[in-house]
Amino acid sequence: MPELRHDPVQKRWVIIATERARRPQDFVFSQPMDNGHDCPFCAGNEDATPPELCRINYPDGTWKARCIPNKFPALRVEGELERAAVGQYDRMNGIGAHEVIVESPDHNKDLPDLGVEEIAAVLRIYRERLIDLSRDIRLKYILIFRNHGARAGASLAHPHSQLIATPITPRTVALELESARQHYQVKERCIFCDIIAQEMQEHRRLVLVDHDFVTWCPYASRFPFEMMLAPRRHNHDFSALTDADLLKLAGHLRNVLRRMKASLEDPAYNFLIHTAPAYHMQNQRSGWGSTITLDWHWHIEILPKLSNAAGFEWGTGFYINPTPPEDAAAFLREVCLDERAQC
Question: Which of the residues are catalytic?
Fold first, then answer.
């Protein structure tokens, strides 16, 4: 029988449509890929992009990963917000930041194909850009995300992720922050820590666990094979991770992405990091206290594009997921990558 499940963080309902149950092989979509001809992100074409903001190199001086401004930004750093009313409405200038993190000089080497140290280099750039942009008091939130495949919104096949900083806190993040705050006010515990503890105890929705990180399919998954990755120990701020932390995260993330790639034949997906808002880091620097250190828990959401939102979803805010998260997690756990993987 179908189930209605409630997400206590986003406070939304999801329909787990078991009567429409679909197997992993039912979600295979072909993804046309280009061959890298004239790709601006490939090694040797650095002059085709705006001047880089930062890079991490191999020992021989060539780059592992680099960050550049987006050539066609959604928001621009230059200017003032100039907030104003327009009758019943409000407006402000499109101030923010929009950057691209090129994850590899190799056009055909996607994130799960990279070595652990190469993925750690990408994560280090994430951290450094979060720290740098949080110094701009106009910016309230910085989202790092990855669109893999045309179905997920990628316009270039070369492996890359993006960063957009906004002068307001996005509604989705604000809802999560408010849910976490309310939970802590009542129970004096982090809601994410409570969820992780329950998932660890039940085990049914776990995908991968190691000493430092855990990945699971959320109880109220919106999409087939949706996953969430988080540190097992309470930590509110991705930008506070050390190089050693990032290396461990790189190994865990690589394992999870390789499982998804191998089992679902390299699906399109969106990957996003929810961390403490920029205004929290600004308050910390100025000496202002914040409960976010206690009630918030950074996490990564991985959202395969295996189904489409249609009229019912847009009209109600409900999602219909034909694959129970328990089935998805069991399938992903059983994927054997190679003799060295944790299978």
Answer: 160
